[in-house]
Each structure stands twice: as C-alpha cells, then as structure tokens.
C-alpha cells in the first residue's frame, strides 16, 4: 500500500519543477500551466470522499487495483501529450483523471492498512502512512529535477514501474476484500465535485477574467453555495458520502482549519519557488530542485520533532510552533527573493519548511484520534479533502496575484525604457502568460522596438518576477499566521483513539 500511494503524493509536486520546460515546449499559457498542476489536486479533493465510499461498497483491494490502473494509464497519456493546439487540453484532462485514480487509491489503501493491523499496532502503521505522505510530497521536486534533465515527460512515465510493483505486491499480499451492503450517495458526490470545481475555477480565472468580472464571482460564490448545500444534504442522509458529525469535536475542527491554512502554502510553494528559481535565478531544473532541498531538509527534521511532541504533549504545541516558524520563515524568505541569490535564502527556506513539518503529521494524526465513532477512512477522507482543496485554492489565488503583479511590474519597466503604454501592456501580458526559465539563454529575437527593448531589460524582468513572487510568499506567511490563531483554539490533550477490534469502513 505504501508503494501504491507513493505515486499519488509525488505527483502533487513533481510537475512543478518541470513547468518552465513544459511551457516552453508545448507553448502553454501561465494560467494553463497552473491548471495542469491544479487539475490533479482539484480532482483528488473532489473525488476523495467518493473513493473512500466505493472502497466500502466494492471492497478496498478491488478499488486499490482500479485506482492504480486509472492512475498509471493517465500518467502514460500525460507523458505522451502531443504538441500543438491540443496539448493544453490533453494535459489538463489526463491530469484530472490522474487525480481521480489517486482519489480512488488512497482511501482504499488506508482501509487495507487499518484492516490488516491489529488494534495495538494500528496507530504506528497510520503514523508511518501519514508521515510518508508529507515526505513524498516534498521529494517530488527533487525527483522531478533529475528526470527533467533527461526529458520532462519522464516525470509521468516514472509511475509505470512503481505501479507495476504496487500491483504485484497487492496480489502477493492476498488482502481480504470486505464489502458493505449500503447505497452510494451519488447526489453528494456530484455536489462536492461541482462545488469545489466551480469555486477553484473562479479563483483561477480571476487572472484573465478580472476580479470585477461577473463570471469570476458567479463561479466563486456559486461553488461555495453548492458546498453549503452539500453539507446540508449530507446531514440528513442515512449513509452519507462524508460523515460531518466529526466536526462536533472542537479539536477535530481546529485540526482541519490548521491543515487548510497550512496547505494554502505547502503544495503551492513548490510550484512558485521552482519557477522563481528557473526564471529569476536562471537556474536549471536540477539546480531548482536543490533549491527546494533546503525546504525539504527543514521539513524532514521538524516532522520528527513534531511527532515526538505529539506523543508527549498532544497536537497543540507542535501546531503552534510550526505556524510561528512557518509564518516567520515565509516572511523572511519573501524579503530575500529580490536579492537573486540562492545562497542568501537557504536559512529562511529551511525555516519555512520546518514550520510546515511541525504542523502536517501532528494535525492529521490528531484528527484521526478525535474521530468520535467515525472510521479512520471517514476522518482521513475529510482531512485529505480539506488539504487538497486548500492546495487548489492556494495555487489559484497565488497564481492570480503573481500574474497581476508580474504584469504591472513589467509594464513599469518597459515604459521607463521608452516603450508606449499600450505596447508595454501587450508585451507584459505575453511574458506573464509564457514564463520560462534560463532567461539569459533565451533572449528575445527580432528587430522591432519591443524586441530590442526586451533584450535590454531582461535582467530587470527577472527582478520584476522576483518582486511579484514576494506578494505570493507574503501571502503564504499570512496563511501560516492565521493557522497559528486557529491552533490557539485547540483544547489540547492527545485525544482518544478511534481504533476498534473490527476493521472500520473506508468511507
């Protein structure tokens, strides 16, 4: 099961490191590239609860196999994307089906782990399961940098041998398949998918539609209304898709809120930091991966401390410490972005990673321990849905901020060098929609005034991009600060355990 889920977490961030190469080769827009990253996360969030419920009804082993096959076939198709007008749509569609496969796979794999471990060993097994998820999410960019040096398509193809091993091990393990004779909440599944999709679409498209657009607010408000309707609908169901009763526990609600605000920064930081490294620092994909290694180092060390603190004092202390460290780390990191020096930034990158490391595993594990009669799968389905939805919203909102600030900065730079305001806006829009790395190696060609001006100001444009990213990283610092105030509301203690002698259902 660890082999199976490893693909799903690596793929949350592995695409980020290859983004500039994908944009350059396929001619994607900046918003299109963000959708390539976001489609996976959004699909994973929208269908996670459905995956857990299907594991209940059809048996977890069967759903693990189906989810793995959907995931790996989608991965192969992502790697085989053709060049041309179809490329952007192709990638987004099959990234979304990748997310569907992951949403089927993860809760079913969790149900298998819960079913095969006795009560006295179940907690340790789940701690490893949750700890692995954060570690592999951080490993994604490192693996992506190494594979991109060969071809960016390999970041998708690498899932094939992993999936083969996972399927072979699943067969050899002879996992029992238990089913439940209950109905599937189809209406609930549709409502949560529509609500999440609409709201994230509004945030994502605000960069091109504008915040004053009716369409932007129709999507955002409409999506949130649908999610409210979903919650009201689920309360009256005998067999709901998501058991919302767990939110009666204050500690669980605080855990979910802290995870939401932490995940606004955690997954998006890999995308924005890797593109920043390749654009503003003129780094190669491998160098950008090493840049993110500082973040992972801080994350890995703090995760171990956070786990020990959870065992001794409960989730509240590590969540508070993590939120403070994360807020300070992202704030100081943002202030150093315009120095355009990787060497000067590493302490703050590691500090930001440590903040996230203190939060994720303790908050996730404490949420499971507060499950109040619900199954591990039900609680994990809620927390994972919250995490992935937050990551999708973070990518959409911060991507919109980056595009607007980048456009404004480049317009200012170009007009100061004599280009007309109208022409400067056109050129700035083109740059914002087609950000690529290694600016020194790909100077603009042509003999027109705009091309000549661009060759003169490429160094300034890299600084403009760094300044635009500052707004993003300050936003991440604010998200961690809000997580701190949420953590203050945690009642403390370690909570009970939801383990039972009978294997709990997956959904």
UniProtKB/TrEMBL annotation:
Keywords of this entry: Antibiotic resistance, Membrane, Transmembrane, Transmembrane helix
Ranges of residues in domain Major facilitator superfamily (MFS) profile: 1-494
Record carries keyword ATP-binding: no
Example of a GO biological process term: response to antibiotic
Protein topology in the membrane: Multi-pass membrane protein
Location of the protein in the cell: Cell membrane
SUPFAM superfamilies attached to this UniProt entry: MFS general substrate transporter
Protein's UniProt name: MFS transporter
Organism: Streptomyces populi
């Amino acid at each position: 099961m660890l082999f199976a889920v490893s693909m799903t977490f690596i793929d949350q961030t592995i695409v980020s490191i290859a983004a500039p190469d994908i944009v350059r080769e396929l001619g994607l827009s900046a918003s299109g590239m963000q959708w390539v990253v976001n489609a996976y996360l959004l699909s994973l969030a929208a269908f996670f609860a459905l995956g857990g419920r299907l594991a209940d009804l059809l048996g977890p082993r069967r759903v693990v196999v189906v989810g793995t096959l959907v995931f790996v076939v989608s991965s192969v198709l992502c790697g085989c994307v053709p060049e041309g007008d179809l490329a952007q749509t192709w990638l987004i569609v099959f990234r979304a089906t990748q997310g569907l496969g992951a949403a089927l796979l993860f809760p079913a794999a969790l149900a298998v782990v819960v079913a095969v471990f006795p009560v006295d060993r179940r907690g340790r097994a789940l701690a490893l399961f949750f700890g692995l998820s954060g570690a592999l999410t951080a490993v994604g960019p490192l693996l992506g940098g190494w594979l991109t040096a060969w071809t960016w398509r390999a970041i998708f193809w690498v899932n094939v041998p992993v999936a083969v091993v996972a399927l072979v091990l699943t067969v050899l393990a002879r996992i029992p398949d238990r089913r439940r004779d209950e109905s599937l909440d189809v209406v609930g599944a549709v409502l949560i998918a529509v609500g999440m999709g609409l709201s994230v679409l509004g945030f994502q498209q605000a960069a091109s539609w504008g915040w004053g657009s009716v369409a932007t607010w129709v999507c955002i408000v409409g999506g949130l209304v649908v999610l409210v309707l979903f919650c009201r609908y689920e309360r009256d169901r005998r067999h709901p898709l998501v058991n919302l009763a767990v939110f009666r526990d204050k500690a669980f609600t605080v855990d979910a809120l802290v995870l939401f605000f932490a995940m606004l920064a955690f997954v998006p930081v890999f995308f924005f930091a890797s593109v920043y490294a390749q654009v503003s620092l003129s780094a190669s994909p491998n160098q950008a991966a090493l840049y993110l290694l500082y973040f992972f180092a801080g994350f890995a060390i703090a995760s171990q401390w956070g786990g020990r603190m959870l065992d001794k004092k409960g989730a509240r202390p590590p969540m508070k410490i993590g939120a403070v460290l994360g807020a300070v780390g992202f704030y100081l990191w943002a202030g150093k972005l315009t120095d355009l020096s990787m060497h000067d930034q590493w302490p703050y990158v590691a500090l930001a990673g440590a903040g996230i490391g203190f939060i994720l595993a303790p908050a996730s594990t404490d949420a499971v321990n507060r499950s109040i009669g619900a199954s591990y799968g039900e609680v994990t389905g809620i927390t994972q849905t919250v995490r992935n939805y937050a990551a999708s919203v973070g990518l959409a909102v911060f991507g919109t901020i980056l595009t607007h600030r980048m456009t404004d900065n480049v317009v200012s730079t170009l007009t100061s060098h004599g280009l007309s305001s109208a022409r400067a806006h056109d050129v700035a829009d083109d740059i914002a929609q087609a950000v690529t790395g290694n600016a020194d190696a790909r100077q603009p060609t042509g003999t027109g005034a705009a091309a000549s001006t661009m060759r003169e100001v490429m160094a300034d444009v890299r600084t403009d991009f760094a300044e635009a990213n500052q707004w993003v990283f300050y936003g991440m610092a604010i998200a961690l600060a809000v997580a701190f105030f949420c953590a203050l509301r945690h009642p403390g203690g370690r909570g009970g355990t939801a383990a039972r002698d009978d294997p709990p259902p997956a959904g």
